[in-house]
Structures are given as structure tokens and as C-alpha cells.
């Protein structure tokens, strides 16, 4: 066999390994040390208990214990975790110390090797020698005993962990593992916002309010400003723009002078938060371009009301001569024609108009491109451009027309100066698909298209998004400042359901479950199945809307209470909600008239509408009264014959086939008769006497179309020929048929009536259900009616309580003096003037509206902003919070976010949290800085895994990893009971499908399945959850959350939790040498730089003892505070620590000599288990100082660590390499280099922030593990050459 020499063996298992060499000696217990012979120099070694891998002290050969000597504990543990099948086809008995086989003596001088890490180590099935087998080799002979062996690849994977690309097995030093875990978590992020001042542009007054920037962005400097604005002098004298706004203007104009590699003009992205004054900045840009002769601009925004704001902003910058034309008021003809007369100025339009077209098929987009003309180089402004975000939707859905239109207009106007404006545009990388003018992907970048760019960002996690923002800022195409939320107060208020509401909710949940069963059985009765997927889609959509309504209504009492309390404290109130329930109100008004007894109940109207329109009824049967019926029937029966019209007259037809083969002969003969009608219309043949005659002399059967002489019939028909005549055969058939049909129709009618009755009963039940009123009307009513409450929403009319308090009437929102279009502006003004102290805003009505305590407004009371309903997406939440928190305000608002105590409702919070987290806007700090909203983010990768684990547990395919709430592990029947309830609940909300009751013996055992797409769909789970009675709803939710917490905690322990940007902390951080520039961007001259830092993380004996003394001096210490040493030795040494009780009782903070304070706290039991307290301070001091010294040069794994000098675990002096500056161009290179790293924790792209201790220089960038620096630099050299 040719490959044989490549299989080497180690005679580790050769006798006599155990000493003393008694054949029956049992494998040693883990508590004793083991003695073995070295595979290299044959010296006898003593191996410490628990060690399985070691290096010989004399010849330095790395090796591992032979299988027989693996401590029994290891084997037992291995056996518990699914005993792996043997990897070789030969049987593998449990081996006693082996006698020499005869074949071994034939081959006595096989040279022994140690473990070769590039190969797989497998035991020979016969002689048990450990063999080094090259990857991919499947058949060979054992070099020691000569037996032929075959490797079963499928089993090797389970059998031997080192089959994974050779990750060197660590010597398991538990303390080292602990320290490494801590280092991986990095330091806590400090304040994530820093105050902002324009670093390089100094014109203009200060901004009226404190403005901040994320601290990662503040680590990047924008390029040098070279553009000199034309309107600088007028701005300086009028002070219309603040220095922040002028900075944006300068960088945008500067960026517009550049072109992308594909020839299009580069675009600029204004990412400022809500309320910084983007509108005024845009007005400034338009005014600047006007002075350069670019007299046309397109301004695309979300609502047509904002046209008035655009006008106001232009007036503020003294651009009064520039006209603003609202496109929705203009015809579809040419804009610059004589009749329309728009020659120059700003055309203001909404995203909806961008995709609009007239009846004649003229499109607005075409009209705008034509108006701009060829070579248009004016401004194209996408205000609130997140509207176009779904250009690249998640898999499975279609891109929106808005997204496509935004892309198309940019293509058609390649030289336009594009400005993207959105506070939330870059918070979700998927939403950047339409920003093609930023040049982040495509020609000349490291990503060929947007999908590739997106993939790279997703792998980089939250930190990657920050890097993209930093990159854009460094290249001068992005600015993002947020109003400081200092002074704004956030409070999450749980509004528990009141008893009455709880009861209402329970009944509603039960009703929906029964309705589902009812619909299932009703549709099963139908002959022709209606489109059932449509029915269920509508059912679940209504279900979700219904329970969202219920959640909102549940919060009305709390909202009213908080609002009244705020008004009594001399503040004013803004209530935010998403939907107004207008559609339901209008339906009710059309149904019951405009005067009603009480406000409309949204949930009730929704249910009524759904059941009325979608209850599956059988077809209504057609009744056949008397003689007319017969004729009708004959027509009906023969209208299947294409040659005969319904009236019984012959139509011109193409040749037709007989209806079927089983018809009587007469029928088939009649074919020819009808055939001949084609050729000769005048003469026809009588079917009885078969003579030919003129057509008009023959009678024609209105049923089968036969032609006969009236005289041939028996009895003959007289002179008066009836108009409708049918032959005898047809008549007979008809009578029989009629009787059967009559019975059938009666049966159908019965079914129809029964179904109708059931529907009526259901509608009656719905009408009798106690359901809450429309929240919007309810709140307005309870806070004093429309006279006291300003309403800024999209609805046209509202219900108002009559003056005598009885009944309500429907009236339009506008009055004679105010047009419908202006009603929101009018209401807003009343609120800002202090005439109304409560405003209610919906999403539709409030886009871009300012309601802050403006210093220019009469009403400067502090705003209390209550969110009754959190929006579906956090983008919108930020937009909603931005209504009351804006520039130039007298006081910052107080936010009160209301949730009910229903598990499922936190869903809405979760989406919002997800986004606030990546925006860092409201959480003020980092996700680890205590419990912020981000505790509610469930729709993550971990959430999906937790959901799957929970479903599998409930479906009894797997055991649940946590004990459900209210159950105990000692009483398994409680858990079984919970599982049965949970399964029933999931069936009632349609997550478990195809349910059938199994045979009678096991009644109550439900079968069913959860389809794959539902297994990971957290959104669907949380939406459907709302439709369960509160008790089981909360139990299921608690179970889901506890599994999720467990997963996240495990991920944190394993060090692969994406924690965003990590702060590297140490006592001393110094920059070493001069930073190396490794890449320069051609277009902007921005560069990528490699920084090398030296960190000293140690704590001297003096500072450690001072720490302890201070604790004891303050009297805060506990009896267990003090110095400890590890109970076990590693490499002949014990580790020393200082432990003192932390603020969480029973938990201890740990300080180590080499790496300082640990992030993770330790419980007292763990502390006492691993360490023992040292009473003598001298011993502690020598141990501490010794470890402090040794750790300056070497890691905790000792001098023989596999990664060698690159390893930093537990090293006091640490070298850290960070790539700062532009990261996107080199992203791929770094990712490739990291994927080859030996340690798993080094393969992850990690974004870190580091600040030097002397001169406070802050760098944010990618952490490059020391072992990967070389590879990265080689890869970057390659990037450089290509560019050169």
C-alpha cells in the first residue's frame, strides 16, 4: 500500500505504560497522578491528575495520555454525552493493557512520532496505538500491527474533536479560561455620546441647543474644508444658520464637486437627528446653488403639509425670491410650458407623487426628468429618505415602487447634486440600498454590489454599522449629530390591565379561538372550496389588529390619569399613537347613520366586518317556480351546447364535439343536422321523416335543437306554433330531473339557511361582547373634548359627544374657516399658542411637525410625551419622539412609554428597542449600562433559536432547558400539564397545524406539527401570542424569555456575543512608534492606519492593599473580603486574587495582579470552591508581587503556550493592534486574514475603542489579533499594488 508510510504511530500505548505492570491494574482514578513513558526520550514521567495533554520536560515533545489511561471520569463524561461510535469499521473493545501482537514483532522498528497537529489522531482498532492519519486518507494498514484499517468519515467527526481544522487543544487551566473570557468581553462602554462642535469649520453662531455625536464618530475627523460658500457674508450677518448647519453646507457642496468611478456625481448624506434643523440646512443649500446659477431644485419629502415648512425655511435664510411649487397642485403637462409656467424654483413633491401617473399614462417621474432637462446639475433632495428603504427587501418580498422610483430618478439625472436626509437612514444597513451616490459599493470599491456590502456588515454585527458611518464621515460625505437628550426623561410605565379589561380580554381571546374553529368547520362543508389561504390571511391580519386595539384601549385609563396629572403640574401633554381607527368609524357611520348612542368600538366593527365579508357561506341555490322554471331549466341544461343560444336560436358556430359519448344515438345524429347549418342555411332535414324542407317550415326543439315538421309529430301540432317548443324526449328528461333537482335545492337551501343563521348568531354574539371604544375618541372625550384637545392626525372626521351628554354625532374635523388641508396646521398652532394644552398626534398627521416647547411660541410649558402605541418600527418611534424634542426649546420633554403587562405586547417595544439600540439615541449609553429598552429585543438570532427550542419542548421533540413558570422539576406532572396547556394554546392561535385527535384510548393527546417557516418566526409568535388569554399568554412569554436569557448568557460565557463596540481599558495605554499608513483612498485622500498600543493592565501590591484597606475603613467590607490563592497549582504556581463584596449582595468583585479588575463577578460559593483565603499578608504579598512580575512577559498558559508570544491571556503588558481610519476599503482583506486564525475568539471581527492615557487620543477601529497582523499587512500590500 503506497500511502502506508504517512501513517505514523506513537507507542504511547506500547507496554509497559502503567507502573506497576500488573495486567489487571484498573485505570487510575482522576485523583491520583499517573506515570507514563515519554514517546520521545523514553523517560518515565509523572502526570498530574486531570491532565491529558502535556509536554515532556526533557525532550519537549508534546503528547497525550493513551486511551487506557484517560481518567475514568473523562470516560464517564464522554459516555454520558452520547457515546460516539468507533471511527474504524473494526470492533473497538474496551482495552486492558495490551499484550504484544505477533504482527507487531514482525515490524519492530517503526519510528515513533509525537502528535502531529496537522493530522487526525485515531486509535488502531486492533493494537490501540494512536495513529496520525492525514486528512482525506480513508484506507491504510496500521504501521505497528500491520492490520488493514478503514476510516468511517461520518463517525470521525463525532469521535474526535480535533478533526476540526486543527484548533490546538488548550491545556485546560480553568483560571486562564476565566481570564480569557473576561478579556473577550472587553471593558464596559462609557458614555456613548460626546458633545459636538464643528472641528474644522468656524463660521456661524453656536447652535441654540446642546448637540452630541456618538463617541465612535467623534474619533474620526472629517476632511479639510476647501469649499468657500458664496453666501458666507450674508449668513454671518443674518445668523440664519448655526455653525453646525454651515458645516453641513460646506461639506455637501465640497462633496458635490467629486464624481464616482462610474461617472455619476457623488452624493451627500445628512444623518442629523430629528430637530437639528435639516430643513433649514437644505434651504441654505438651495440658496447657495441659486447663486451659482443652478435655479432648479427638486425637494422630495413625506407629506404635502411640509411644503409650508419648506417655504418658512427658505424665508428664514432670506431666499424669499425662490418660489416653492407644490407638484400635487400642478397638471401633468410640461411644467415649463406657457400654461403652467414653472420656469425655475423648487418643485416640492412627496414620495407618493413620485410614483403617481395620470389616467392618460403620463408619469410624474417623466415630467420631472423632462423639466430638469439634459445635463441637469441642480439639487435633488431626498428628505426623510428612509421612505425608500425597502428597495432591497428581506428575502421573499418585492422591492417597493417608491424604492425603485428613487433609484430610477437618480439614474436618469446622473449629474444631479443628490442629498439624502434622514435621521434614521443608516441605522439599518438594509435600508441604504437606494443610496447609490455614496459610492460605498460598485466600481472601485471592495464590494461589487449592495448585497455583498450588506453581507459583510451583517457578519460584522452592530459595531460594523458604526464603522460605515465613521468611514463616510472620514471621506466627507456624512454628518450625523443628534440633539442631546440631556434633560429629557424617559420612563417605561407598565399599565396593568384593570379587572374589567382583563375579563374583556379573556372573553375576546376565547371568542377568536372559537371563531377559528367555526370558520374551519364552515369551510369544510363547502363543495367548491373558496380561496382558503386568502380567508386565513385576512383572519390573522384582523386578529392582530384587533388585539393591538385591545392593548391600546387597555392603556387609556393610565394615559388619561398621567395626562391629568401633568396638566395639574402646569405642563402640557402630547399623546402619540399610530392608528386613528378612522376606517372603523366611517364604516359604523355609513352603517348606523351619523348620530350614535356611544363612541364606535374599533375592535367590534373590525370583527363584524370580518365575519360579514368572510364567513364561508355555501352558494345560494336558485329556486325554480312552475312552468317558467322548466323553460329556464331547459335553457340552463343546454346552454352547455355551444351551438345553441340561450333563447334556443342556432348561433353560427365552429364545428363542435358532442357533449359526451354516452348521449343517446339521436343526439349524435343531430350533430350532422347542426353541422349543416354552416353551409346551407335555407334547407334543413326533418328528424322524423328525413325529408328536406325549408328551414322556416320546420319546428325546432328549444332544448336539443332537433328540427321536425309539425305534421310528423304525434299528436300533430296545429297552426299556432308555440314560440318555445321542446320534443317529447327532452320533456321526459326534464320532469325527472326537476324532481331530483327540487329535492337537491331544498337540501342546499337548508344548508344555506343554517349557515346564514350561524353567521347571524355569530354577529349577534359579537354585538353583545363587551368591547372597548375607539381609544382616540375616548381620550379626547375624557380630556375635555375637541375644544381642549388639538388633534394632529390624518383623519377627516370625528365623533363628538352631544352637549347634553347623551349620544355622539359624527362631524368633519375642519370648520367653515379652515380647509381640510390646513386643519392640522391650524390645530398645531392652537397648541403652540397655548389655547389647547393637549395634543394627540398620529403618524399620518405628524410627519415633520414641530411641537416642542419652542422659545418662539407662546406655549413654553414642559411637554409630557405619552406613547400610547409604539410604532411598528423604531425609525418611526424616533421620528415620533422627535416631534417634541427639537432645536431652540425652552425645556426638554418627559417621555412616558406605556406598555401593558401582556407578554405579547412587548413585541412592539422589541422592534423599537432594536433600533434605538443601533441608534444609541435614547438609551443614553450602551446596552450594558443597566436595563434599557434593549432588554426587549427579541427578534434577534438568539430570539429565533430560543423560539425553536421552546417549540420543540412544547411539541415534546426535545426537553425544555428551563422549568416553566409555576412548575417544579421535582413534580414532572406539573411540567406535563403546562406542556398540554401550551400545546392547546398554540393550536388555538394556529401555530400548531394539522391537528387530529389520536385514537380513543389517548383522548386529549393532540398531534400536529409546526411548519418550518414558523419555527423561527418570532414576529408571528409574538403577534399570535396577543390572542391568548392573559394567563397562558404570560406563561408562554416568560418561558420564551427565560430560554432566550439562557442562550444569551451562554453566548456571553463562550465569548461570542456581539456586544457592539468594546472599550479597551488599562491603567496605562501608550501609542508605540508612529502609526503605519496601510491604504489611501484615491478620491478623498483619507487613509487607513495601523496603530500599535502597549497596555499595562496590572495592579501593584500597594494599590491592591490600599483598595482593601479603604473598603474596610469605610466599614463596607464583609468578612470574606481579602486576598485568596487558587487551590490548584498550574505549572507549579498558584494564582492570587483580591476579592471584595460588590454592590450585588453575595457576589464578589475579583482583582488580579496581572489584569486588574474583572468584569464578571463571582458568587461566594464559586470563590470558596476555587480559592482559599490567605491569612498571612506576607505570603499574599510575595505571591502577588511574583505573579505581577512574571505576567509582564508571559501569558497564563506558561512558556509553552501554543500561540507563543502572540497570546495575551493574563499578560500584564499587552500589545494591541488597531486598524483605524477608513475601514471599508480593506474590510475584505481583514475578514479573510481573521478567518484563518487558530483561536475561535480571534476569528470574529471586533470593533474596539481605545484612548491613550497621556494625551487622550481616541481611536475606534478593528481589533487585529497579534497573530494576524502579518497576514493582514500582506493582504493590504496587495490592495495597495492594485490601486497603484
Automatic annotation (TrEMBL):
Residues 13-30, 83-94 have a biased composition (Pro residues). Residues 738-765 form a coiled coil. It comes from the Eukaryota. Residues 662-678 have a biased composition (Acidic residues). Transmembrane segments: none annotated. Residues 1-33, 74-94, 650-678 are annotated as: Disordered. The keyword Cell inner membrane does not apply. Gene3D superfamilies: P-loop containing nucleotide triphosphate hydrolases, Zinc/RING finger domain, C3HC4 (zinc finger). Residues 683-733 form the PHD-type domain. Keywords: Coiled coil, Metal-binding, Zinc, Zinc-finger. SUPFAM superfamilies: FYVE/PHD zinc finger, P-loop containing nucleoside triphosphate hydrolases. Belongs to the SBNO family. PANTHER family: PROTEIN FORGETTER 1 (PTHR12706:SF13), STRAWBERRY NOTCH-RELATED (PTHR12706). This is Udp-glycosyltransferase. It comes from Stylosanthes scabra.
